[in-house]
Amino acid sequence: MKIVELKIVQTYKTQVIVNTDSEDENTILKLSSEKADNMSHDNWGYEDTEFEAVNIHEIPKELSKDHIMLLECGYPYHKIKKYSQEDAEAELEAININ
Predict the structure, then answer these.
(1) Is residue 53 over pLDDT 90?
(2) Domain check: are 32 and 42 in the same one?
(3) pTM for this entry
């Protein structure tokens, strides 16, 4: 079993109108980005999702099924690897998994 850290990038496309006389592309980009961010994101047109593996590690053999279950729930590895078996069981109970 492996732990895979992913970078996920979603791409959207939209258009905005900015009121500026500037010809500077950086200024226009800043103004248009602010305008797009302030508009309803529901109006952005989804285009694509890209996944990139950032890190891939073997799951250490000493991790229990409870530790692995926490990883599958989205807990970060750097936190889980410090948990004792009792900590892992308590965390699962706290989130109502066991």
Answers:
(1) yes
(2) yes
(3) 0.64
